[in-house]
Fold this protein.
Amino acid sequence: MSTAPSARSGKKRRLGQYVQNIKDSYTISRRTYPWIGWALLGTLVVLLVLAVVLALTTHQATWYWIFMAVLLAAVVDMAILSWTVRRASYAQIEGRPGAAKFVLDQSSRGWYVESNPVHTNPKTQDVIWRMVGRPGVVLVAEGGFAVIHSGWRGTIARISAKALATLATETGHAPQEVRAYVGPHIAGEDYEVSAGLMGRFVDEFGPAAQAGERPLDLEACIVRTLVEEGVPADMIAGTHASTSRETGRFFSYRATGGSCGRHGALVVMSDR
């Protein structure tokens, strides 16, 4: 007997929550974009005018075109509001402790972001977060982050060191305050290279570059590069996942015998 009233009550609550979410989104957007109200209203007015023109031109029912205009205006306004509330949220938290964590949580699909910071600067309240995902090497600090694809060419060119120097300059953090993460890649025991290439890596990084007589350990080379640049060894983490063995999760050109495929990494950092 109480099922119907309960269902109606649930629908009212969901509707009320939906309306409240729209109000909150408008309030947040208006703090940064005072013109948002006029933009939403202007969209409706323009579409209504267009509806009247179409009704007069096609000789169809005016109410039909007005109804379609209102529906379209609602869709467009929601898209505008969704876009502005995200950008306004980023702008309003900029410079505050924990801002980077908020951005990571909003843009971290496919990543694991730890709930607690791994380091906090007591003077500046800057925070460093640990995040692990699929791309190659990731460096994260409160003021920014860097994602580097480090194949054998990039590794021997010490691209991680160059990215670290840029990140330190841009964020004001010393290398000792940066966390580094090496994502999934072809593991050393699976990555057999020519004797000549192995010799180049041994000359550059020492015996640690060898995972055997011919296998090349890229992760060991990357870690050595970062440690030499000042990143503490205990602040460097790896996923320990080999793309050549875990083909159900990752594409591997070598494991599939040369079949074409690509990995993609999308990193978003909102400026406002």
Q: What stands out?
A: The chain has a mean pLDDT of 77. The domain at 99-238 is CATH 3.60.140.10 (CNF1/YfiH-like putative cysteine hydrolases).
